């Protein structure tokens, strides 16, 4: 049994640099990076990162499905702020979803449940973009 590498001690300068980076970092940055990472990881888990003619070593369609679901869950959070800038990312996600369907024999990942809107809801509420407590 191999032992894990010993814990590394950080110097005061390294800790200060990490803290300075955390001050500059925004939640928006992390969400965008996570979205891109999920799509890239999903493509790798689907075996799409192999060379042409090369058989994927460790295809894992369950991991691919999870990556797709995670990316789809993050998109609405980022759309309000980034709109059209997300077009290339949405395209990459759509291609990943198509590859998943082909690789899994035509079974798409389950769509997010569509919530029924109460009658008489205004345009903001019925668009799904307005959070209403208790709904």
Automatic annotation (TrEMBL):
UniProt protein name = DUF1844 domain-containing protein
Show the segment(s) annotated as Disordered.
Answer: 103-135
